[in-house]
């Protein structure tokens, strides 16, 4: 029969009607929950968690937030002594994570940021340490479920990243808050972990009082292409954010996405000098002073007359004589509240 194709065309409307009736019946009887995205189609969060910092039940709370918002169950990656978070965050990116949650203290956050900077993958913060300085600056809630929800639903903010080489080594470390040499690093180095667990941020105050008796050292500062500056000082701190524990502001002009780093030199030699420093920090004054000086620069080189204790985002990194520091503008995406607190300097 040469006209078989005519009959096939004529049957198409009837076939379409039958298929439509069957599909409508199936859709009406289907469970609405089964019509959602397949697990592999749901957004994926990865959690890089420091097991020594998190409390029991933290994992379950974060999983509940993820699944409650329609995300897949998160990829859970714990840090180790050998790898405090960088390798885990890289694995998360390789596995296709849409956001990586840093669940721990400032050291965990810094390690995760080292892997995420420049990738376009956002970092969420679940504060679980003693300082949590970046989280405080960004307005991240100090509550696991609220912080996890913010990490999944908040806005992306591109922030600057500090990069530092120590004593001319090839390795370039990342920092998000502050790096420094001298008095502040000595505090970090001498504060026992057990004391931080027992009394919290007060542990740093106790260590600070013990370290006040040290002497000033000669330091040479090279800021961008300006002529070198020579000072006798107790500490030099380079910051992306200027906020300390308790809401104190060490560097009033510091903003985490302004494309520059802030530098402060603190040089008291007596108890009266330390009182003057404390008053300047409390009142947020910015003007020049023989004991406290402020600058801004895109690249900074700090060289001391002898090796001094150094710290990167609160982690002691040993003694060093030279720090080469630069800013990597807006290199890292961080999840922040829809209306984040202004971290711009106060006027005046």
Automatic annotation (TrEMBL):
Outline the extent of the DAGKc domain. 40-168
Task: Tell me which Pfam families the record gives.
Answer: DAGK_cat, YegS_C
Give the signal sequence positions: none
EC number from the UniProt entry: 2.7.1.107
Note the superkingdom of the native organism: Bacteria
What are the GO MF terms of this UniProt record?
A: ATP binding; ATP-dependent diacylglycerol kinase activity
Provide the transmembrane region boundaries: 6-23, 236-254, 260-282
Keyword annotations from UniProtKB, A to Z: ATP-binding, Kinase, Lipid biosynthesis, Lipid metabolism, Membrane, Nucleotide-binding, Phospholipid biosynthesis, Phospholipid metabolism, Transferase, Transmembrane, Transmembrane helix
Q: Quote the SUPFAM superfamilies the UniProt record gives.
A: NAD kinase/diacylglycerol kinase-like (SSF111331)
Tagged with keyword Transit peptide:
no
So which cofactors does this thing need? Mg(2+)
Q: What's this protein's family per the entry?
A: Belongs to the diacylglycerol/lipid kinase family.
Stated name of the protein: diacylglycerol kinase (ATP)
Q: Which organism is it from?
A: Pseudonocardia kunmingensis
